[in-house]
């Protein structure tokens, strides 16, 4: 029986070598598996430098997500002095084995991992840490938006601290379900009548729950839930709930009963101002990020 190489799982063991035109990378360990492949920590054999290598199985039926990830990372590189995007180091494809790979800058722990490490008792980050981390998360989102893309899956697991000397910089990861909302003439695409749910229930915007086309403001709404997830002592009220309807209702309650929703946080009224601003935006609207940064820094300093 012939096996389509695209359907085989990519499962590299430590010591496995991946050779490109430029270098050989030796697998150290698996960092995580996504919906369409896996990410490994690798060492470049000559220099000993460590990188992250993302692999995607080739598929006859599904468009390559890794190709889009590469296109986005190429576009946004150099957007800021301190970039929130991992640098592309190398890339290639292995026709015989049936996979594409991307070698990129190695990031450290994700915000979700860091939050977990703090333990169940403390729950969230301190307000200053949560706010300054969120500010960087929004900068990354703004940089992506400048190029006409939306991320559609912003959550603590998709942001990571930099490694070593870059541990104070936050990186945005995983553009697997990002979407370009501008067409080739740089005009906003006409919104589709219905849209299937994509992303993560806990952080999805209300438009996403309701099957309405997502715009820049929807990433900002997800970012806002990320901020709450990091800052609220007990986490988001709807954590652990996988019922889309119930979660959507709980998100509505953040608006109708803000004082309760913000669990006694001193800066609750500023957070309420931010979500009120995001909520009045429409699909086509550009976001005034500086309005949000201003409010965040007002709380921070
Ligand atoms: N450059 C990187 N440096 C370090 N770790 C990374 C890097 N990129 C991704 N990872 C880690 O690898 C794991 C898998 O990431 P990936 O982006 O493939 O998908 P995912 O978010 O787990 O899944 P899905 O694609 O289904 O959303 C995650 O734990 C992520 O933190």
TrEMBL record:
Q: Which of this chain's residues are annotated to bind ATP?
A: 54
Q: Which UniProt keywords apply?
A: ATP-binding, Nucleotide-binding
Name any one GO molecular function: protein kinase activity
Query: PROSITE patterns from the entry?
Result: PROTEIN_KINASE_ATP, PROTEIN_KINASE_DOM
Q: Which residues form the Protein kinase domain?
A: 25-301
Residue ranges the record marks as coiled coil: none
Give the PANTHER family listed for this entry. Answer: CASEIN KINASE-RELATED
Name of the molecule in the record: Protein kinase domain-containing protein
